[in-house]
Amino acid sequence: METEASTTSRALATEAVHAGREDLAGLGLHAVPIDLSTTYPSYDSRQEAARIDEFAATGARPQGPPVYARLDNPTTARFETALARLEGAESAVAFASGMAALSAVLLGRASQGLRHVVAVRPLYGCSDHLLTAGLLGTEVTWTDPAGVADAIRPGTGLVMVETPANPTLAEVDIRALAHSCGSVPLLVDSTFATPVLQRPLEHGARIVLHSATKYLGGHGDVLAGVVACDEEFARALRQIRFATGGVLHPLSGYLLLRGLSTLPVRMRAAAGTAAELARRLSADPRIRVVHYPKLGGAMVAFEVHGDPHAVIADVRLITPAVSLGSVDSLIQHPASISHRIVAEGDRRSAGVSEQLLRMSVGLEDVEDLWEDLDRALSGRSARSARTAVRSEGRTADRARDGSAWAPSPAGR
Ligand code: PLP
According to the model, what pLDDT value does residue 405 have? Predict the structure, then answer.
């Protein structure tokens, strides 16, 4: 297999289906093999000792078979190779979840004595919580992009931003922000954009983080995180992953690699539908404001004039669930779910209002999605459900008390 540092002039769509699989034909394979071993036989303990010493000293991926699955796995390594290529990074390191990936980055900086983080809200609720609560011994200064340069001080190890941000889809100029960071590494959580829409390293960011649970996996059946960065930081991350154990299961590595192959097609299709829904919502008097990134993408956020909980209760095709990035559409109320753990005042000041709904647009037909959204916004689903119940019971009701049943006008 080629190394993660391989450079190429191939287009992203080509890389998406070929990166990380270059050795397959030579192995006489077409589909990627899954290596589920937790341990690997070795009859040469001296050589193993040397390999373990080498990893402990450098964090470089061991040559030859892994010693133990917490150290390395060939299937997961294929996904790392592919993702690094798509992000234009030297390396990528995969973790058991997006939060495990962020934890490893924070530990990596803190272990260098750099415990101070400058961060821009909004971030995903649990990322916000991890920083605010200082669970890993870090300290955070929250600011807006214009305040980043002033917030940096000796001991600042990281600047963190999400763009487009969860859940408001606020966008940050990565290049300008990277400039404000000076020598402090800028981490961009690019989960919502994916490398199809945005490659932060090309704009001066030093670390890209994905909740791979979302678009990279793409089918709602893998929990994973990944960090794309230079090989030097990747080595520190591998050592932390080995010591703390937040490894990605190889089956997940396999599913992520498979997910990457359709990522460009999925993103473009879903983004086209999302843009059309955003257009229709913008023209709808039931909607107070629509947030849709200039960058594009498959997320749409909007504030309703009415009760956001009623919309959640009334969708039928769209699934009311947290998370995002799957082939099917999801909707959720950030103030109740994804950002519930953030203090109310911090949520508000970050633009996460009680009226805000966040929709992850999937691959369904736009007219079917609009029909569901339109019905939910009108409250017709719940009313028609109640109508149906009344309809079933009307004969009994009439027999019992003689009252006449009339269909609800809202049922139309
Ligand atoms: N970053 C963003 C932008 C997210 O939306 C999420 C999860 O929703 C995470 C990070 C955390 O990822 P995971 O749930 O895979 O731990």
Answer: 30
pTM value > 0.70? yes
How far apart are the CA of 99 and the centre of ligand 1, in A? 6
Return the best residue to mutate from 102, 121, 214, 221 for the ligand 1 pocket (most ligand atoms within 8 A of CB): 214
Task: Calculate what percentage of the chain has a pLDDT beyond 90.
Answer: 88
- Counting as low any pLDDT under 70, the low residues of the chain are 1-8, 380-412
Convert the pLDDT of each residue in 281-313 to its tens digit.
Answer: 999 999 999 999 999 999 999 999 999 999 999
How many whole angstroms from 29 Cα to the centroid of ligand 1? Answer: 34
What is the residue-wise DSSP string for 88-111? Answer: T-SEEEEESSHHHHHHHHHHHHHT
Return all residues near 173 (Cβ < 8 A) that are at least 6 apart.
145
Cα–Cα distance between 137 and 115 in angstroms, integer? Answer: 7
Order of strands, edge to edge, in the sheet holding 116-120?
91-95, 225-229, 207-211, 186-189, 156-162, 116-120, 139-143
Q: Which residues are near ligand 1 (CB < 6 Å)?
A: 97-99, 124, 126-127, 162, 166, 189, 191, 211, 213, 223, 225
Tokens of 355: 């009226």
Sorted by where each starts, the structural domains of the chain and their CATH numbers stand as 5-115+144-156+174-263 (3.40.640.10), 264-397 (3.90.1150.10)
Among the options 78, 121, 199, 214, which is catalytic? 214
Ligand 1, atom 13, lies closest to the CA of: 98
Ligand 1 centroid to residue 401 C-alpha, Å: 55
Write down the pLDDT at residue 397.
Answer: 44
